[in-house]
Amino acid sequence: MKVVYTDVLIIGGGLAGLRVATGVKERGHDAVVLSLVPPKRSHSSAAQGGMQASLANSTMGEGDNEDVHFSDTIKGSDWGADQEVARMFTHCAPKAIRELAHWGVPWSRVKRGDREAIINAQKVTITEKDEAHGLITARDFGGTKKWRTCYTSDGTGHSMLYAMDNKAHEEKVEIHERLEAISLIHEDGRCYGAVARNLMSGELVAYVSKATTIATGGYGRIYSVSTNAIICQGMGQAIALESGVATLGNMEAIQFHPTAIVPVGILTTEGCRGDGGLLLDKDGYRFMPDYEPDKKELASRDVVSRRMTEHMRKGKGVKSKYGNHLWLDITILGREHIEKNLREVKEICENFLGIDPAVDWIPVRPTQHYSMGGIRTKYTGESQTMKGLYSCGEAACWDMHGFNRLGGNSVSETVVAGMLVAEYISDFLDSKDSDMQIHSAKVECFLKQENDKLEALLTKENGEDAYVLRRRMEEIMMDKVGIFRNGDDLKDAVDELQELLRRSKNIEVFRSKSRAANPALVNAYRTQRMIKVALTCALGAYLRQESRGAHSREDFPQRDDENWLKRTITSWPDAHQTMPSVSYEEINISKMEMPPGFRGYGKDLTHHHPMTKVKQDSIDATRKKLEEEGFDRFEIQDALMPFMDKLPKKYQGINERLGENV
Asked: Between β-strands 326-329 and 362-371, what pairing exists: parallel, antiparallel or unpaired?
């Protein structure tokens, strides 16, 4: 039995995982990161458009602050977010981005004087102030009142990840590559690490730790077409689910990005539209102003994706052998702008489509992009039901995104949550609560259990083909649990996925019986788990009889706050179950700083909660009274919903901006 001991085991080598690792190392604790790929190849590198932080440096960002960012985030979430967590996030985002600049991220900067920009298809002149020269600038993104998305051309994730990986090496973080966590080690509701499989040698290793963090990203690859990397298969969520103790939250909350290229589904950043790009139909007609006259192409992603789909359903899509699509026109931005600020988009178009986006329109359609659901955690990042298990980034339901994420809030969340969770983990490690009480025999039991599962797969004869099951799962999710959902399709999806799960218990590994470097074996055990993850999504969507954010039910078009202002919680307490167990967590209006309201898109179809007006009246009265008494915005906010005491002291300081000295 091979056992590796460490203070903190971090599963996942992307932005969130590396930020946790550097944070705990700075606090004097050992950390080991397990990564399927070299960290610089993690999916975080695919983030193009930018990171939201309310710096308010540029002219178009003037007046921005934590309050505006918070409001945008809560509206974007369709009131599904945890408002205390959203406050923590918006407060810390400016600190995180400045820290990243210190670590070497070459953020694009403000240049004093006049510059031309495209706003609403018109060329306008923006004049930047002398005092802002050299500060971090920002671009426009969907669902925001201010230009807040800080960027490095359109390679923001790439720049951030390289800087973070370099910082991890500087802190001497131990990174074990090509290792996959396949099971959590736990006893009596306490996590003690994980069993990992070496993808090259096939060797099983037990990593025993005081604290374990899952930062494995999303589960987009349960869909047949996704902007996610092929390693984003939901394995972090799956091993938490299979523990029988940890719970998942809001797994049905799946975001589709409006502008993935056809047919391969690779993302073209929201920065294309943020910088002034337009969506056109088969006639070259700009249709978004007809649907969303205010925000147009820069409505929230869930809204734009639905409007595009509606427009194609009306026969306005461009026909192709890969199905209907629409056009993204960025030619209006000019070659110089594209080659400087959208160079990754240009290379993607050249390499995968054979077109020049400075001249040609880009074929796009909505494609699965992001998972708002994940491992349900407290504000500290710790699982609500398993002590010592933490999660952050896209793997987690922290829950600052609710039922729809704003563009630029994802990479921002990875580093903000990472730096906060690192502090909470370190506090846990510094306390007696982190003492380990697990016997080596129990560790060996988990190793044997996983070894037996692999042996059963390799020795099975006349069984099912995992590739066939997986492809069918992907088709079901794409066809029946997509942008628009309805009860009949969702019921069919749940029933068929349940049958696929039964069949997956009879998988045979074809082609190779080797334990080492065997993709067929990897696909076999991952497919079983992916189907379980898909079931949590489909069942959650079927049971949620409303439309909220990215979850759009054609048979229940209203957002129903009275009956459905709650999170879906799924678990798998019995390994023999063929369906997850489902419960719900109420979202308490009485604790909100910003009660549910109208998002501002289309018609207001909300069925309001009776407590909403009561709470709003109370907030309005409190705000008016405090303003009349001369209290500042920080004091008023604290009176409405205190959150600062939840933050580590080192991050409680007020953010300073141009024109707002503190």
From this structure: antiparallel
User: What pLDDT was estimated at residue 659?
Assistant: 79
The Cα–Cα gap between 441 and 445 comes to 6
Amino acid at 629: E
- Chain mean pLDDT for the chain: 96
Closest CA to 275 of 60, 55, 56, 54: 60
Q: What is the DSSP string of 63-123?
A: T--HHHHHHHHHHHTTT-S-HHHHHHHHHHHHHHHHHHHHHT----B--SEEEEEEETTEE
Q: Rounded to whole angstroms, how far apart are CA atoms 11 and 18?
A: 10
SS3 507: strand
d(CA 105, CA 161): 9
3-state secondary structure of 169: helix
Long-range contact pairs involving 180-183 (C-beta distance under 8 Å, separation at least 24): 180/34, 180/36, 180/235, 180/522, 181/11, 181/34, 181/207, 181/214, 181/235, 181/236, 181/239, 182/235, 182/239, 182/450, 182/525, 183/239, 183/242, 183/446, 183/449, 183/450
Residue 470 annotated as catalytic: no
Residue type, 404: N
The predicted model scores a pTM of: 0.96
CA–CA separation, 141 and 52 (whole Å): 9
Q: Looking at 87, 91, 273, 311, which residue is catalytic?
A: 273
Annotated active-site residue 273? The verdict is yes
Residue 80 to residue 402: CA distance in whole angstroms? 4
Of the candidates 87, 221, 257, 301, the residue annotated as catalytic is 257
Q: Rounded to the nearest 10 degrees, how much is the dihedral formed by the CA atoms of 556, 559, 564, 566?
A: 130
Cα-Cα-Cα-Cα dihedral of 521, 523, 528, 533, to 10°? 150
Q: What number is the average pLDDT over the span 282-308?
A: 95
Q: What is d(CA 65, CA 71) in angstroms, rounded to the nearest whole number?
A: 10
pLDDT tops 80 at residue 201: yes
User: Residue 183 corresponds to which amino acid?
Assistant: S
Q: How confident is the model at residue 660 (pLDDT cuts 50, 70, 90)?
A: confident
